[in-house]
Design goal:
The complex is a heterodimer of chains A (328) and B (351). Chain A is mostly beta strands. Helices cover 9% and strands 35% of the residues of chain A. Chain B starts with a strand and ends with a strand. The chains are: A mainly beta (328), B alpha/beta (351).
Chain lengths: 328, 351
Amino acid sequence: MTDVFTAHHVIEYPGGYTRSVGPVIGRFLTGLRDGRLLAVTLDDGRVLVPPTEYDPATSAAVAPDADHWVEVGPRGTVQSFTWVSHPRPGKHMLDKPFAFALIRPDGADTAILHVVDCGSADAIRIGSRVAPRWRAERTGSITDIEAWTPLGDGEEPEPATLHVPAEDEQPVVGITVPIRLEYDLTAGIATTRYLKGLGEGKIIGGRASSSEDVYAASRGTDPKSGEPTSIEVEVRDTGVITTFCVVNVPGLSELAPEIPYVSAQILLDGANNTFFGLIRGCPVDEVHMGQRVKAHWADELKPDHTSIQWFEPTGEPDASYEIYKDYL
Amino acid sequence: MRDVAVVSYACSNVARDASHNETEMIVPVLHEAVETSGLAHDEIGFVCSGSLDYLQGGPFAFVAGLDAVGAWPPVRESHVEMDAAWALYEAWVAIQTGEVDSALVYGFGKSSPGDLHEIMTLQLDPYYLLPLWPSMVDVAALQACAFLEANGATERNLAEVSARSQRNARGNPNALRKGDVSAEEILQQPVTHHPLRDADIFPITDGSAAVVLAAGDLARKVSSRPAWIRGIEHRMEAHGLGVRDLTRSESTRAAGAAAGAASGNVDVAELHAQFSHEELILAEALGLDGATTDINPSGGALAANAVMSAGLVRIGEVARRITDGEADRGVAHATSGPALQQNLVCVLEGE
């Protein structure tokens, strides 16, 4: 079997994911910014923390501004816990082992999931009394509580530092959450063959034994039948523009640093599917359907998409519509 | 109601498939399910799949699945961003409408390319939970801790579930974690996520599964013993972990009652318990007794848990035992969401 390519991919939203929180969650988060734990009293008298816009049992709406808002805690009782012996850098707030726990603040009937900083797994049990350790700088986020810490008998919780509102301060309406995920992706057998071909100046495709249709850059199957494209076929690096668009948005392609440029679908000679490419070598307004083009290969070939830098017109007569009408 | 049966089932699991892309991984399983169904590819009326874009970090993961199905001429198709057990539910509903008589249902996913436990954090409430990054295992461990406290169960009870799973899995070629291991041996392993040990936590699995459904006479024509779906229901409870009773699964209880799980003998049950304690919670909710019901004879999800197909596998494993004559009636369960938030119960029966 071919050595299959893998690639390390990172998905990350620059600056974090911005979310509107709405008035109910916003009021709770505004409370956190003030150093207070707010809850709502539901119709049946249960006190819900953290509040949601709806009663979790009946779906009845929870109003953001009525007088059923109460303050709970700051002391709380651990209902359940687990120990995190290896904190995740960039994700977890603490860089030392900690507990996740469900904590029921005094005066509430529900529990809040949060972090307990208690040193060791032996220092927490169901029933442990804890209290929040507030950050000095609070923004209106669930992370305004850095962690909860064990509370000894008769010990008073450390109060939050006073939040001095800026003159134009508004209630919390949004949060920003960084998200980063990493992957080691497998190209698969067919895609690896295709990429290796690019490194040798070839466009490799495949076809299934049950069909004459050839797929350039096959992902491993004939998508019409689902049969494996087990027969390797090289296609030409010349073809016909089936359709195209003029791109006026900068920064979308590293191979097309300047706008406007043309992205096109190209029916390569010998293939039965279209292939994506950029078009250069003629003015943007002269690009047209049916135009014959040829790949412009990079000086230095690599087994990746940079080997074909763009396609350019060959000057041959246009292909007739009959040739590419089934590929639009 | 139309009678609908499972007429074929195929599955493949490995710990890490570093050779194939998703399309290549699915092809053999889909082909096996279709070929053994007795239906021709173009006779299948509906195609429905379950997959999760986050597993590969790219949009429209299901398109890779369609490349393996063969979608030309255009097929009637749908997809759920859930375990394929819910795709099977949609297919069952489609057959109930009378517009189609058969369906191909499949699910697939590779858990190995990313950090699955972290990816699953993204299914949590984004305001109160996600910023803290509790992992999928942390959330399950919170449930396990609460369950042990409330039920007087011990870590030994968890180890017994895990040991039985590994022993049962010895006969299952698609199981990853299997062996002749005792609860005592498991208890000697370290607790990694209090109160859970590695043996209490499903193994990371890349895989896929497929099932073909057929209605009434068509099922009788292609299968000598169809596994009839006698009831199928799914129910869901609140998302917030702190507002529900984690020590019981009321949604499983309600789905099981609505599907008629207890209205006959249960010879076999396949429960989508990704963690040892979940099997105990689910068995209680469904009224199952290990003395009269063979629970997770495949090894269950503790033996292999390809996310997005493992729930469908539960249905397939029960159906296979009915078709093979090993069982007359069985219950399959699938779950979705944190700490058993959403649960599907499917009752299957032979004739």
